[in-house]
Specification:
This protein is mainly alpha-helical. It has a domain of 84 residues: Rna Polymerase Sigma Factor, Chain: A (Orthogonal Bundle). The chain has 9 helices and no strands. It is globular. The protein starts with 11 loop residues before the first helix and ends with a helix.
Length: 186
């Protein structure tokens, strides 16, 4: 983690790893995440003179990462027909990068099956961009509401509102999926 006493000279290895994890969680694709992380770090560094001293390097660079991920998703959705579903391997790599564990390890620790984790992952990826962003920042990366608001450039109330909507949509998607799964096969 970047220390406040060393804000003038951030630990770029740690910062770049955190930015990459954020991009991977937002995009679900390693190649896109690597490109987005590199672009985010480049933009943040080239505009470092505009960084306010009160803003941490992580928040500063994370804001660029969120915007670059938005641009990447828009560009990718224009190129693809249909949604962007993660393969099982991509899902495991995303879980590994974000949480430091594989999906099966997470399932064992949390007592959940990998199919339940896959449902949650699918529900997160199906959210609209802003709701997915706040969900990833708050729940996957563990940022506070205030940090999330600073990174997204919006009020804390907007973060809370988007989280409320995201949770409601995820509950609907997950319960609908479970209801369909419980139907007898023909």
């Amino acid at each position: 983690m970047i220390r406040r006493s060393d804000e003038a000279n951030p630990d770029f290895a740690d910062l770049s790893a955190r930015v990459y994890r954020l991009c991977l969680a937002m995009l679900g694709n390693e190649a896109d995440a690597q490109d987005a992380a590199q672009e985010s770090l480049t933009r943040a560094w080239s505009r470092r003179q505009k960084k306010r001293p009160a803003v941490t390097w992580w928040t500063w660079t994370g804001g660029f990462a969120v915007r670059v991920c938005r641009e990447t998703r828009k560009r990718r959705s224009a190129q693809l027909v249909g949604g962007s579903e993660l393969t099982e391997a991509q899902s495991e790599r995303a879980a590994s990068a974000v949480n430091g564990a594989t999906t099966s390890e997470l399932a064992a620790v949390k007592g959940e099956t990998s199919s339940q984790l896959a449902k949650v992952n699918d529900a997160v990826m199906a959210l609209p961009d802003r709701q997915r962003e706040v969900t990833v920042l708050r729940f996957i990366l563990g940022l506070s509401t205030q940090q999330t608001a600073e990174m997204l450039g919006c009020p804390a109330g907007t973060v809370k509102s988007n989280l409320f909507k995201a949770i409601a949509k995820m509950k609907t998607v997950i319960t609908t999926t479970e209801a369909v799964d419980d139907l007898p096969s023909v």
